[in-house]
């Protein structure tokens, strides 16, 4: 899977730019604030429907612009696919091969993983970050997951609306939504467990590759409600507490997972650098599993690689990605040292403009 062309309009400082891409490694260099990261952000938007950067969605729009759009031509196997994502006001519009499609269908057609300065939040941040990582991976390999997730979100929204009224109400108001939450949460939990079981071997190999000094790892998964108890029964039991809080406090939307190592059993034992490498291990493992299931590696984005990893780990990652033939997009104020002796395409980014150098 690789991009052949990427066109970006109205995204942050990128007014109207187009980039021709090929196989292998592409390096975008330039001063801070030039728009390098926004190139990766555009690719990520097509694959996730959101940015990897924190902050309000309004910040995506170029100052003074009313709309933004990202268009890509992508090769998947022997087929070419055209993807488009646009936003005007608060509405996102997705197109696939010239047809209007739901955002989920667009995201399913494009796979991009990104390692960037905030990636350590996957290890040190909130459970929401880890659920997003997990569910994106499940979504791309389990076709039934999206339908179950949508039904779960609809039922959750309805129950939360009832809770916010502050009125206990008759059993008949709550029971249908709690039954639906139970059924869909069980399906989602099964999808997640199956995915994690398949991910663990790749994750162990990836962590051993980047963090051999920490020893073997263990992954712990919490489904979001007590083991051995049906969710509908639990929700009925704790309805009074949920009424007081105004939202549903148990279910698949509360799931989490964590990693521990033989020589670092607690997250607090990891340095910031080790948190980053652990997050990178997760991303590489997810990409590896995606390739195993779908036949091709996703596009890999590495934002500010030289600042995020030391030279030895930069070299290791570059060699790994080169060996599997992934298309890689890298940013930096200058070309990272391990790439200077490897084949790559070089682009200069300045004041929102992109110019090919090599």
TrEMBL record:
This is DNA replication and repair protein RecF. InterPro entries: AAA_GajA/Old/RecF-like, DNA-binding_RecF, DNA-binding_RecF_CS, P-loop_NTPase, RecF_2. It is found in: Cytoplasm. PANTHER family: DNA REPLICATION AND REPAIR PROTEIN RECF. ATP binds at residues 30-37. PROSITE patterns: RECF_1, RECF_2. Belongs to the RecF family. It comes from Frateuria terrea. The RecF protein is involved in DNA metabolism; it is required for DNA replication and normal SOS inducibility. RecF binds preferentially to single-stranded, linear DNA. It also seems to bind ATP. Residues 1-48 form the Endonuclease GajA/Old nuclease/RecF-like AAA domain. The gene is recF. Its main location: cytoplasm. Coiled coil: none annotated. One of its GO terms (biological process) is DNA synthesis involved in DNA repair. GO terms for cellular component: cytoplasm. GO terms for molecular function: ATP binding; single-stranded DNA binding. Signal peptide: none annotated. Keywords: ATP-binding, Cytoplasm, DNA damage, DNA repair, DNA replication, DNA-binding, Nucleotide-binding, SOS response.
């Amino acid at each position: 899977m690789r991009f052949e062309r990427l066109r970006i309009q109205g995204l942050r400082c990128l007014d109207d730019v187009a980039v021709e891409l090929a196989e292998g490694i592409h390096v975008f260099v330039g001063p801070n604030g030039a728009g390098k990261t926004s190139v990766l952000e555009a690719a990520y938007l097509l694959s996730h429907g959101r940015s990897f950067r924190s902050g309000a969605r309004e910040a995506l729009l170029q100052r003074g612009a009313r709309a933004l759009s990202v268009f890509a031509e992508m090769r998947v196997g022997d087929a070419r696919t055209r993807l488009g994502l646009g936003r005007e006001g608060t509405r996102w519009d997705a197109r696939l091969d010239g047809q209007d499609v739901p955002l989920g269908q667009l995201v399913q057609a494009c796979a991009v993983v990104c390692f960037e300065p905030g990636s350590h939040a996957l290890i040190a941040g909130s459970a929401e970050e880890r659920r997003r990582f997990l569910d994106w991976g499940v979504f791309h390999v389990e076709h039934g997951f999206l339908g179950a997730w949508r039904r779960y979100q609809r039922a959750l929204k309805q129950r939360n609306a009832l809770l916010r009224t502050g009125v206990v109400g008759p059993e008949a108001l709550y029971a249908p939504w709690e039954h639906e939450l139970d059924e869909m949460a069980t399906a989602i939990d099964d999808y997640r467990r199956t995915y994690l079981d398949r991910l663990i071997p790749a994750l162990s190999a990836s962590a051993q590759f980047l963090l051999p000094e920490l020893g073997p790892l263990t992954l712990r998964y919490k489904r979001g409600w007590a083991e051995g108890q049906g969710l509908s029964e639990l929700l009925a039991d704790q309805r009074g507490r949920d009424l007081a809080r105004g939202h549903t406090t148990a279910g698949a939307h509360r799931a989490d997972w964590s990693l521990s190592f033989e020589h670092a059993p607690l997250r607090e034992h990891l340095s910031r650098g080790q948190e980053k490498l652990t997050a990178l291990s997760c991303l590489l493992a997810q990409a590896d599993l995606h390739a195993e299931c779908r036949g091709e590696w996703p596009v890999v984005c590495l934002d500010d690689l030289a600042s995020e990893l030391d030279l030895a780990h930069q070299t290791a990652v570059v060699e790994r990605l080169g060996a599997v033939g992934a298309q890689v997009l890298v940013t930096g104020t200058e070309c990272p040292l391990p790439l200077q002796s490897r084949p790559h395409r070089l682009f200069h980014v300045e004041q929102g403009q992109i110019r090919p150098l090599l």
